[in-house]
Design brief:
Distance between the termini: 61 Å
Mean pLDDT: 93
Oligomer: single chain
Number of helices: 14
Order of helices and strands: EHEHEHHEHEEHHEHEHEHEHEHEHH
Number of domains: 2
CATH class of the largest domain: Alpha Beta
Radius of gyration: 21 Å
Low-confidence stretches: 1-7
Number of strands: 12
Helix content: 25-40%
CATH architecture of the largest domain: 3-Layer(aba) Sandwich
CATH superfamily of the largest domain: Glycogen Phosphorylase B
């Protein structure tokens, strides 16, 4: 049996010709993994690199120039089958994933997710080597054949992922977010802007987030949107789950925003953000997408840590109320004081110099 304590010094990334990247979700985390994937591709230009991820992230990255093949992890189907206690279907779904991965004969599975589900995927891949951080979280380390000791110091998630590939012998000069070609989506956005008579600068405001307690108040966002309207159009962006909050923000505004919530897919949002003057919102996928496309970010933070998951952008404007409980990293909070206590004036003071 192999010694799981073998260090990264014994790992030669050059010996692996078929590499599977495992980072299943979330969209923001997938985007923040892109610089590490780019560095790996630069080091191994002739390797066959696959990536398994969930459907939402695949919809954004489909056609990525540095990935030879994507594989879809059927998370929604598995969750539905578990709810229905249809464990035969769960097994069939996992067997399908196993069959697709094994056909590619990967010799390295690189777990960049560090959860139980990613450990299972690594095992199903059939890869001879399964490498990742040796973390105890959900027991993911026990699926690995070799463990990389995780960093002891706090670092941003982009740097966390870069550190993993660096300790496998991947060197890099710059950290780059490489995205697919969005030419088709550019045509769509040209039409969208024309339809809404947006001919000059505009600002993208993302009211919603995946956690309810990462959202600022509708009143605060409405006040900021009204002030921004004096400088250009305000475009509300988001998915179906953000619709109710976006409608509340819009109803509280004195001016009229452009509503793009639920109307654009992720690739189209990427193009819309790339051409925007500012991204304004919380800690959410579109914030990281704004960073990836090079748009100035203004982001408020409540329960999460900007040092770990904030915008990876030198000039980003990060706003916190500064309560002692921040960051608590809790998905639920009764008081939500960290964002309810954030005033519109405080946020505007950070935005105004950027206009």
């Amino acid at each position: 049996m192999k010694d799981l304590r073998q260090t990264e010094k014994e790992i030669n990334i050059n010996r692996y010709k078929r590499i599977l990247i495992i980072r299943l979700s979330a969209i923001g985390d997938v985007i923040e993994t892109l610089p590490a994937v780019h560095a790996l591709r630069q080091r191994r230009p002739n390797a066959y690199i696959g990536w398994i991820l969930e459907e939402a992230s695949y919809s954004l990255l489909q056609g990525h120039p540095e990935i030879d093949r994507f594989f879809i992890f059927p998370k929604k189907e598995i969750k539905n089958a578990v709810r229905q206690r249809n464990f035969k279907k769960v097994k069939n779904l996992l067997d399908r994933v196993k069959e697709e991965l094994k056909q590619e004969r990967f010799d390295l599975a690189l777990d960049m997710h560090n959860l139980f589900k990613s450990g299972v995927v690594a095992l199903l891949s059939g890869a001879e080597e399964r490498i990742g951080y040796g973390r105890y979280r959900e027991g993911s380390r026990f699926f690995l054949t070799r463990q990389i000791p995780p960093p002891k110091s706090e670092m941003h998630f982009v740097d966390w992922q870069m550190n993993l590939v660096q300790r496998l012998g991947v060197e890099y000069r710059n950290k780059e977010f490489i995205l697919p070609d969005f030419s088709k989506e550019e045509q769509t956005i040209r039409g969208f802007l024309a339809d809404h008579k947006i001919t000059e600068r505009y600002f993208c405001l993302a009211p919603g987030t995946s956690w309810p307690n990462k959202c600022w108040t509708a009143q605060g966002m409405a006040a900021i949107a009204d002030r921004l309207s004096a400088y250009g159009k305000v475009v509300l962006i988001g998915s179906t789950q953000d619709k109710a909050l976006a409608e509340e923000v819009s109803s509280l505004m004195k001016t009229r925003p452009v509503d793009a919530v639920e109307k654009l897919n992720l690739r189209e949002v990427a193009v819309l953000l790339r051409q925007a003057e500012l991204y304004i919102g919380g800690d959410t996928g579109p914030m990281h997408l704004a960073v990836a496309v090079g748009t100035q970010v203004v982001a408020w933070f409540g329960p999460t840590s900007p040092a770990k998951t904030g915008p990876y952008q030198e000039n980003a404007a990060v706003i916190q109320a500064g309560y002692p409980c921040q960051p608590c990293l809790k998905r639920r909070c009764k008081s939500m004081v960290c964002l309810r206590g954030l005033s519109a004036e405080t946020v505007w003071e950070r935005i105004q110099p950027l206009l």
